[in-house]
Structures are given as C-alpha cells and as structure tokens.
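Quick check before the chapter quiz. The format below is the same one you will see on the exam, so make sure you can read both the input and the output lines.
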Amino acid sequence: MSKILSYKVIFEPAEEGGFTAYVPSLPGCISEGDTYEEAMKNIKEAISGWIEVSKKFGDEIPPSDVIIDTVAVSV
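Here is the expected output.
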C-alpha cells in the first residue's frame, strides 16, 4: 500500500523562459519546464525519483518542513 507525501515546491521563472522548480526539503531535487504545467509534471517525476533512490539506499525520507509565507516591506 502506498502513502501520499506532500512537498512544498518553489517555481521560479527562468531568464531564458519557462520555469525552474525545486523542493527545499529534498536537497538536490530540481527540475524545469518550458511552461508552469510542464515544470509541475517534471518536478513530480523528480520527487518520485528522489524518494525511490532514497528508499533504495535505506535513507530516511524527510517530511516537507518548509514554511512558506509572504512578507511585505515598505520601499
């Protein structure tokens, strides 16, 4: 039986177009795509691959412990 894990993902517009996506809770888990939708699809695959490799080596799968919030500053 599989369980569902949820991770916070950061999507940043790339200078050359498209998006870069990374998962702060999973070091080195990064992907990209020409569109947001493609970047989302690719990062889901990257997360699954990251977890699969970690399980294979007996490593602990970290939780998504990142807090994301918006900070307003006066300029």
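If your answer matched, good. Residues 1-75 form a domain with the Double Stranded RNA Binding Domain fold (CATH 3.30.160.250).
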